[in-house]
């Protein structure tokens, strides 16, 4: 009989996030218009995994029909009737404003439709902070979770918007228990040049961090993608900083660059990409029909951990 022991595989980066979130209190999550199998199943699976307590907002007959057609058990989850997707988005946001949910989750409506309700000037969920999106990526072969921001909301953000984008990502990283993040402000090159405006903004963001206008993370930039994540590339370029070659958050110049980078990693490196929107009154879980089950669960896990951290930080009222 062999005395060799079987080595269990290391849990994935997403598995660790999900396990951590399962230890926290499940966050009440308002799900806007979960009226197809993918979105409804995603919310129910997150509930079954102890991540969220869903409140389903949309046409009740349609939600029940989708559940019946696909063998989904709605159990006793609350359903708030709304006649169509536009009304569901508005009602979901109203429930958040009334304090009846800690998270907002996108169902089968278009992202633009939900975000219009979120950003409405008088009835939405805006704060003083710019709203931005973070991709939480599990890249095979890469030792750490990667955040990419912003690749979904802000098309061509200016310097002030980028300050909020960076701060949102840092706050998320810290809140989910990952420690102090190393933040790379990414451009095409690692030198500052007037020919590439994003390099100037990268340098300005690093100076803002030195002046405590951005807090909680270590910043460096501009950095090209290779010397942001590859220690060897950073060494060859002679870059010495805590961030170069070891970045955990990648802040991209604009939405186009970020979207292409995230999808490149997804389709060529077979990475999983969870998604969350920050800067509103509550975290917003944005999912896509193409998302895997693990990505959907990871999105809910990250949002739940963030909600738990916000809950602990709230002052106690006597």
Describe this structure in words.
The protein has about 325 residues and is α/β, with parallel strands linked by helices. It is about 40% helix and about 20% strand. It has two domains: about 15-125 and about 280-310, 3-Layer(aba) Sandwich (Rossmann fold); about 125-275, Isopropylmalate Dehydrogenase. It has eleven helices and eleven strands. Strands 3-2-1-4-11-10-5-6-9-7-8 form an eleven-stranded mixed sheet, with helices on both faces. A hairpin with a 7-residue loop joins strand 5 and strand 6. The chain starts with 12 loop residues before the first helix and ends in a 5-residue tail after the last helix.
Biggest sheet record: 11 strands, mixed
CATH topology of the largest domain: Isopropylmalate Dehydrogenase
Helix count, per DSSP? 11
Spatial arrangement of strands, main beta sheet: 3-2-1-4-11-10-5-6-9-7-8
Helix/strand class: alpha/beta
Helicity range: 40-55%
Give me the CATH superfamily of the largest domain.
Isopropylmalate Dehydrogenase
- Net shape: globular
Sequence of secondary-structure elements: HEHEHEHEHEEHEHEHHEHEEH
